[in-house]
Amino acid sequence: MLTNYISAAMHKATYELLEDGTFYGEITECKGVWANASTLENCREELQDALEGWTTLGLRLGHTLPILDGINLNFSKEVA
């Protein structure tokens, strides 16, 4: 499920070529997940690394993560 979540998020990534010749990428659904690199491929790789770290930390800290393409990684909190 985690692999599918990462894949779904990466499909939502947007990239742009900056004036300095570097590439900037972000996933707007995942606040704070962005990357900047000298090539598009490096930007994609760095963006995925950032996404994986963001997702892992979010799960560890109990943050609510966005539901992407119907994939929900959030733990449901049951009321006793």
TrEMBL record:
Pfam families, per database record: UPF0150
InterPro entries per the UniProt record, alphabetical: TTHA0281-like (IPR049389), TTHA1013/TTHA0281-like (IPR035069)
Protein name from the UniProt record: Antitoxin HicB
The organism of origin for this protein: Chlorogloeopsis fritschii PCC 6912
